[in-house]
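Course exercise 7: structure representation. Students receive a sequence record and must write out the corresponding structure in token form. The form below is the worked example handed out in class, using histidine kinase (714 residues). Read each field label carefully; the graders check that inputs and outputs are placed in the correct fields and that the protein name is recorded exactly as given.

STUDENT ID: A-19
EXERCISE PROTEIN: histidine kinase
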Amino acid sequence: MFWVNASLAIEQSALSTQLLHAHTLHNHLDRIEFLNSINTHISESKNLELKVDFTILLAKSLDNTGQGNQALHILEQMLLQSQENTLQHAKTRLALGKILYNNHHYAASETHFNNALTTVKKSADFALHTKAINDIANLYHNTGRYYEGINLINRHLSNFEAQLTPDLLPELYHSIARLLEQVDQIKLALMYKLKKFEIETSLELNDNEKAGTLYAIAVSYSDIGQYEKAVNYFKQTYEIDKKSGDLSHMGHSLTQLSFNIHKLGDQDTAKRYALKAIDAFKASKSERNVAWAQHNLSLILTAQNKLKEALKLQTDVVNVANKAEGDYHLKNSSLLQLSRIHYLLDNTQQAKHLAKQVLKQAKKHDFNLTQIAVVKMLSELSAKEHNYITAYQWQKQLSELEKQYASTNLDKELAYVQNSLESLNKDILIKNSQLAHSSTQAKLTNSQNHALMILLALVLISMIFVIFFLRSHSNKTLLSQKNAYLDQILLQRNKLFSQIAHDLSTPITAAKLQLEAMQYNISPRDDENLERLDNKLGDINCLVNDLAGIALLEEATFKVALEKQCLTEFSAQLETELPMLITQHTFEYRFTNLINIDAVYIDPVRIRQVISNLLNNAIKYTHRPGTIAVKLNVTKKSFELIVEDSAPTISKQHLPHIFDHLYRAPNLATTNTSGHGIGLAIVKQIVALHKGDISAEQSSMGGVKITICLPHTP
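STUDENT ANSWER:
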């Protein structure tokens, strides 16, 4: 019997050594192959703990290589075999819950985690107890229950501070940092990450074991907008992940690389990383993570203005998100992006419907930044539909949300300060304890205590000053916001007055010049000139009709009356009228006509208004002597109208804003030239009503080149 027992002990020791070796294999495929080679010996073993550890390690490796169903199967079998041993049964339950969690079966996962936690609380295995807490906190993260997760970990850290050894703390710090990031406590999250990295460095862990911390720190840099630093860290984690062969980790690193490079503006490189991330997640058979990577790709396609591709892809993401029960983070992000795409495609009703869905969910789960983004979009949608009353109501709600968010951020800053003070107090207590145990340093202890107390007093005074300053700054900010919104109300009521008054001057001037030309026999008093004069008077009449509805500012809008317009006749009128307007200001005038089709559908009155406004701007701001050029062209899809002038130009950073209401470029705003930044805003509005596009760029002539593209047909 002695020899039998000795033989069994030797065999068990050999199997334990082989299992330890399997843990050192970072490539999951190599690990699976090795574990399968010792599977028979493990099955014949009488050691239940060895069997459970073997099964958990094999299941983890199978799941990380996309074989989740097989992983669940072997764990469920082990759950039945381990029923007689409560601790091993709980350990198996935790592993089963983790695999279910990885495959997004959150309800079943939570049941197994809670059952295991109830068991391990009664045991002496504190490490397993801590693991259960950590797994449940991660589950709360993926189901949007961030504050529950934070409170769970904080209670564990507080209740078991003396028992939490350095090897147990890193994972808790990692989990609470992820949760804090979701409630916008970025600084506090970064503090926990740095603590984790400090512990891992002191434990002399290898690169694979520290990769998760590097990844987490990179996420924090991304959250605070330092995308270049984030990219450098994510590249390090990706290289480590490639060596380990962990497809899931590779996918996450690639997804983050794609997102941060997208933020830096290199969309082609970002797209390559996004496609690699999708392939990695597909190989690991993680539908939810594939959806996240596709959502990221949709952001890139949107930035590249490939809206139809982005729409199809984002619709697929939303379908996956709707199936992922409890995954509100993915659902809200995907619906919001889908709403943005519909908004850019002018599908305003669909965009509004989706945005309201997101707002409802964001309110339910207290996603403050999401609420702000959605309400801002709804305000823009209402303004785009010219429903200014509703737009103003959304703007008012947006103001309240931003004030509430600012106030909440102040509280978070104070919480961060308080946490820093508590950390400082703990450091002081530790230092005092160390000095108290050294009788030979009694005098040094007293002097250091005194210095530390002075330091603490100074820190407390500094914190009080900071708190006072933050509250004062917050009050000033709120007062400034109130004043700004009062100004906005007045601007909204007067905007339409300014627009129409601005446009009345151009046709009146043209009509006056036409009359003077006829009066002094410069132009004959024939039917053709009288008809042109009548057109100008008609333009003025249209503007006066717009002015008649000024009492209903919120509902007022410019309208276009599209009709089939002969381009030959239209261009001939322009070629005759425009020199009279330009040459009197001593500018050189160029007119190029490349039209090769008969007609397009436009509102000729409004298009003449557009041309007049553009030329008026060019005349006002072009240095004399100068040149103004007008070019008409037709492509396969559109009718193009191009107006460009000579110096001065506008800097590239200001060009995208020149069509905004009341905007004047800084280098022009200080000139003596009159104008309030309304003319180009009206031009943009008229072009939009024609479903056309307008853009501005620096001209090769030294000034500004404005290109308008209008569709041939409505």
